[in-house]
Amino acid sequence: MNTTPSPRDPIAIIGAACRLPGASSVPAFWDVLVGECDTVGEIPVDRFASSDTNQATAQWWNRIAARAGGFLQDIDQFDASYFSISPHEALRIDPQHRLLIEVTAEAIDDAGIPLPDLAGSRTAVYTSCLPSDYWDILRRAGLYDMHAAVGAGNWGTLAGRLSYLFDLRGPSMGMEATCSTSLLGVHLACRELWSGNSTLAIVGGVNLLLASDLYLSLADAGVLSPSGRCRFGDAGADGYVRSEAAVSIVLKPLSRALADGDQVYATIIGTAVNSNGRGSGTLIAAGVDGQEAMLRDAYEDAGVAPGQVAYVEAHGPGTPRGDLTELAALGRVMGEGRKAGHACLVGSAKSNIGHGEGVAGLIGLVKAAMALKHKIIPATLHVKQPHPLFDEPGMPLRLARRTQPWPERPGPAIAGVSSFGLSATNAHVVLAEPPAVSEAPRRKPGSAPFLLPLSARDSQALPEMALRYADALDTPGTDLYDICYSAGARRSHHELRLAVVGGGHRPAASLRAFGAGALPQSVVGGSYRASGPSRVVFVFPGQGSQWVGMGRELMDQNRVFARRMRECDRAIKAEMGWSVIDRLRDDAPLTATSEVQPALWAMQVSLAAVWQDWGVTPDLLIGHSMGEVAAATVSGALTVRQGAAVICRRSALLDGLSGSGAMWVVHLDEQKAQEAIGERSGQVCVGVVNSSRSCVLAGDPDAMAEVIEPLRRQGVFCRQVQVDYASHAPQVEPVRTALLNALSSLRPRAGTVPMHSTLLDRVIDGAVLDGDYWMENLRRPVRFASAVRAVLADASPTLFVEISPHPLLSAVIEDEIAVSGTDATAVPSLHREEPELESLLHGLAHAYVRGCDPAWERIYPGGRYVPLPSYAWQRKRFWVDLPEDTLPAPVSEPVFEESAHPEATYDGADLATSSPEAFSQYLMLRFAEFLGLPPDQLDPEVPLTLHGLDSVLAAKLSARVKTDLAVEVRIGELLSPRPLGRLAGELYKTVTAVPVEQP
Predict the structure, then answer these.
(1) What is the 3-state secondary structure (H, E, C) of 562-588?
(2) Domains 536-656+727-831 and 661-723 alike in fold
(3) Helix-helix angle 916-931:951-965, to 10 degrees
(4) Does Phosphoprotein appear among the keywords (predicted)?
(5) How far apart (Å, rounded) are the C-alpha atoms in residues 375 and 81?
(6) What is the dotted CATH code of the domain comprising 449-533?
(7) Distance of alpha carbon 618 from the chain centroid
(8) pLDDT at position 888, please?
(9) pLDDT confidence of residue 900
(10) With respect to CATH, is domain 898-991 assigned 2.40.50.100?
(11) In Å, what is the CA distance from 195 to each residue of 188, 202, 256, 430, 834?
(12) Given pLDDT bands bounded at 50, 70 and 90, which one contains residue 448?
C-alpha cells in the first residue's frame, strides 16, 4: 500500500446547506448529531393524499409495519420570485427541484461566492434526484405542458436548471445510482476538478416522498424497519426508515480556497467508485468483495493507509445483510497499518434522521466534514447490543455509541464516508482536516466606524434579514469588522438594500428596530429598489465649505486620503511655500483666499480619491466655480502639480481684490434675479445659477446692498457668501493680464472622465482647460443648474456625490431633481465638525442603496470571511390539489378571469383607437394571466423576464396578442430587458402604427 501523500491538490468543501428532518441548516444538523437527537417521526397521514386515491392509500397504510419516516415541512412552498420564475412555471416544477434550488443557493452563499462572480464560470454541477412522483399529480390534473415536461418529467433537467439559474458553464448532469448516487456525484466532481477542466463544482441531492408506490415495494421486500428506526451496528437491526432530505455542497481546489480566504469544512483527498457486478449473487444485494475493492481503491487514491483513518461514516442503513456486508468489508481493510489500541470508530447519521436514499452519501459527507471541523464524533443511536462482528478477534472497528472527542493521533485527522445501494454501485470518499493556516497579524480597527450592507429580492425579506443579522451580531465572539467585510465582499447584493452605519457601537439594536418597522437614523435605505447601478456624478462646489479641523481625522484614519493629501501638499508647498497639511492641523481659521482655495482644492481631490478607492467611480464630473479646478484634476486633464498651479496662482491674485466686491445667495430663479437687479446691472450681475430657485448675485458692495434690502423686506431668503471680492463679475477683470501670464505655460490634456463645464455649459474632454479657460471660469457666470438639468434629462437613475468638506450644493441639486421628477439623489461627503470617516460611510451607504457596488476589500482591508445568516426566503404555495374522488377529473390552475376586467375584451379596432392607458391595462392583464400573477404584482419598472417570462410563455403570449389585436409582437421584444412599462408604450405605438423609437 502506498502511504506517500498524493501531490495532487486536495478538494476543499467550502460551502454546504441542507434540509433534513428536524434540521433546516448545517449548524442545526450538527446540533441534532451532537445532541444525540432522533428526528424520525410518523408518516403524515395526508402526505400521499394528492397522489393516491383514498382506496389505494388505505391499502398501503395497512401494509406498512411501522409508519415511521423522516419528513420535511412545507414542501409545497417555494420562493419563485427570487429566481425570477413565474407562478405558472413554479406550479409545474417538481418540488424536489424547487427544494434543491433554494438549498443550492444557500450553499453558494455559505461558500461566500457572490452570484455575479459565479456567473459564466467553469462550474460543474452534479445532482441526485429520484424520479418525480409529482409528474403523475400534474398529469392527472391535466397540467402536462412543456413546463411540466421540463420541470417534473425528467430528473436530468434539475442539474441543467441549476446551471441555468446561476449561469454555470461547466459539465452539468443528473445521475442515478440509487442510494450511492450523491456520493458518486462527489467522485465525479473531484475528478473534474483534478482534471483542471472546471474551477468549481456543486454537488446536490434531494429526496421527497410524495407517493406510496416505493413504500409498498420496500415493505413487500421486508427492507423497511418494523421498529421504525435505523439501528446500524445493532445485533437486532431490522431494516431502514425512509426519509426526505436535500443537501448541496460547493467544492474547490484547496490551494485556490486558501488563496481566496474561503472557509474549509474539510478536504477530500481520495475517492473511489465501483460495482459489485455479479459478485453478490443478486443485483440489489450488497457485496463484501466489491466493497473491499472499493475501499482499497479509495485509500490508494488518497495516498494514505487505512490505519490512519480514525472514523468512518458508514452507509449504515440498519438492514441485516447491508450492515453485515459493510462491517465485514471495513473489517478486512481498515486494520491495515493500524496501531494497536487505535480502533477505527464507525457510525451512521441514519440513526438520527433516517435514510435519505439518493442523498444519503452527501448527508454522511456533511456529517464527517463537521466532525473533522469540530473534532467531535457524534454517537450512533438505537444500539442495544452491538453486532457480533465487533467482538471478532482482530476486528479494527468500534461502534461510536457515545459522542466523544476526536481521537488524538499523530498527523492530520482523516475520515472515510461510504455509500452503496440497490444498483450495486459502491462509493467511498476519504476526508482530511484542512491544513492549519497561519493568520497574518492585522491592525484591529477597534471602535472605528463601520458600514454593514444587507440586501434582498423582496421587501418582506429585508426586515427578516435584519433580525437574523442582529441575532448573529449578538452571538458572543463575533467580529463586527469581519461580518461587515463578509456581508459586503462575500455575498450577492440584490435590488432592495439597506446599510447600517455607526461609529464604535454594534448595529444589532438598529437592525432590530428596522426589523420591527422603524427606520433609525443609522439605517440607510430599505425601500428603494435599484434596477442597476446608478450613474455617478461627482460634484465639486466652490468656496465656502471650509471649517477648522477638516481633514484631520481622515489623514489619520484613511491611507488613500492621506497619500493623496501629501501629494497635494507637496504641490502647494512648491507653489506657495507653506504646508496645507500643517494649516489643516492647526486651529487658526482659514481666511485669506490664497489659503482657503488651495486647502479646499486639496480636500476635494483627496476626498474624490477615497470615493474612487472605495469603488464609487464617476461617470461624469461637474465643477462649480473654483471646484472646476478639482474636477479637472480628478478627470486627469490636469496633473496634481498643474491643478495646484492653477488654484494657487489664481487665489494669490484674488487676495489683491480684497474688499472690492460682495456675493449673495438669493432664493430666486434667474429671471427674477435679473429683475431684482434692475437698473444696477452695470454694478451687480447674476454670477451663479444654482437651480430653478437659487442664484448668486455678485458685484459692487454698495450696489449689492441696494438690491438685497428690498428682497429681504419681501421675505426672499438672502445669505451673504463669506468672500470679500466678487467672482463671476466685472470686478475680477483687474487680474486678467497677470493670471493669463501666470498660466501661459499650462498644457492640459484630454481627461479620462468626461467633465461638464459649467462655464461652457457642455461636456468637454479637458484639452480646452488652458489659462484662458481659467480666467473665463473666474469672470463669467456659473451655469450649474443647466449642467444638472442636462444630467437629469437622460432620465437614468443617478447619484450625485458632493465632493466637499461640507455640503453646499446637495440641496440645490435636490431642487432640480424634484422639478424633473427623475430617479436621482444627491449625497454629501462630509459635514462640518462631524466624524469624517463615519460621514463618508453614510454617503457610501447611499451609493450602495442606489445600486453601486463598493470595493469592500478596500473598505475592510484584511477582513476575513465568516459565515453569515442565510437568506430569508419568502415562499408561497405552489401545489396541485386533486379532488378526493377515486377517479379525479382533470383540473386547471386558477386564472384571472377577463370578465372582471372589461377593458381586456376590446377587439383590435377598439384598442387601436383607445388610450395608451387602456391599452396598457389590457397588456398587464394578458401578461399577468400568462405568468400566473395577480395584475397588481406586475412592476412596470421590471422587465417581463424578471417576472418569470421565458421563451415558452413568450411564444404563447405573442400568439394571444396576435389573436386579440391582429398585430405581430416578436418574441424577442417580450424577452427584452426593457422595463415592462416602457415595453407597453412601445407596443402601443406599434398597434397604432406610430413609428417606435429605438431604445
Answers:
(1) HHHHHHHHHHHHHHHCCCHHHHHHCCC
(2) no
(3) 140
(4) yes
(5) 40
(6) 3.30.70.3290
(7) 23
(8) 37
(9) 36
(10) no
(11) 11, 16, 15, 18, 56
(12) confident
**pLDDT over 70 at 96, yes or no:** yes
Residue 365, SS3? Answer: helix
Would you state the cell numbers that stand for residue 83, as one nine-digit string? 429566481
Architecture of domain 661-723: 2-Layer Sandwich (3.30)
Are the C-beta atoms of residues 87 and 147 closer than 8 Å to each other?
Answer: no
Length of the chain: 999
User: Whole-angstrom Cα distance, residue 348 to residue 233?
Assistant: 9
pLDDT tens string 964-978: 777 778 888 888 887
Output the nine-digit C-alpha cell for 413: 485527522
Give pLDDT tens digits for 821-848.
999 999 999 999 999 999 999 999 999 9
Q: How far apart are CA 983 and CA 940, in angstroms?
A: 9
Looking up cell 463586527, which residue turns up?
480
Residue 686 has pLDDT above 70, yes or no: yes
Spatial CB neighbours of 973, under 8 Å, sequence gap ≥ 6? 983, 986, 987
pLDDT tens digits, one per residue of 723-759: 889 999 999 999 999 999 999 999 999 999 999 999 9
Supply the pLDDT for residue 942: 81
CB 344 within 8 A of CB 309: yes
Nearest to 431, CA basis, from 124, 104, 186: 186
Query: For residues 208 and 448, what is the distance between their CA atoms, to the nearest angstrom?
Result: 49
Closest among 427, 179, 423 to 277, alpha carbons compared: 423
Domain 536-656+727-831 sits in CATH at 3.40.366.10
pLDDT of residue 151: 82
Give residue 357's pLDDT band: very low, low, confident or very high (50, 70, 90): very high
**HSE of 457, CA atoms in CB hemisphere, 13 A:** 16
Residue 889: what pLDDT? 40
pTM: 0.91
Residue 765 has pLDDT above 80, yes or no: yes
Cell of 928: 399577468
Contacts of residue 919, defined as CB under 8 A and 6 or more positions apart, other chains included, come to: 911, 984, 987, 988, 991
Selection from 694, 640, 949 nearest residue 818 by Cα: 694
- Retrieve residue 325's grid coordinates: 456486508
- Domain residue limits, the chain: 11-261+271-432, 449-533, 536-656+727-831, 661-723, 898-991
Q: Side chain identity at 660, as an amino acid letter?
A: S
Location of C-alpha cell 443511536: 381
Distances (CA, A) of 205 to 159, 165, 383, 699: 10, 17, 28, 78
pLDDT bin (cut points 50, 70, 90) of residue 993 is: low
Q: What is the C-alpha separation between 630 and 539, in angstroms, rounded?
A: 10
- What mean pLDDT is predicted for residues 921-929? 81
On the CB side of 155, CA atoms within 13 Å amount to 23
Give domain 11-261+271-432's CATH number out of 3.40.47.10, 3.90.380.10, 3.40.140.10, 3.40.50.620: 3.40.47.10
**Which element (helix H / strand E) includes 400?**
none
Per DSSP, which regions of 703-790 are E strands?
Answer: 718-720, 755-757, 762-764
Burial 573-607 (b: 16+ CB within 10 A, else e): bebbeeebbebbeeeeebeebbbbbbbbbbbbbbb
List C-alpha distances in Å: 130 to 49, 118, 616, 624: 20, 27, 48, 67
Q: How far apart are CA 411 and CA 298, in angstroms?
A: 19
Query: pLDDT band for position 67 (50/70/90)?
Result: confident
Buried b / exposed e over 849-881, threshold 16 CB at 10 Å, is bbbbebebeebbeebebbbbbbbbbbeeebebe
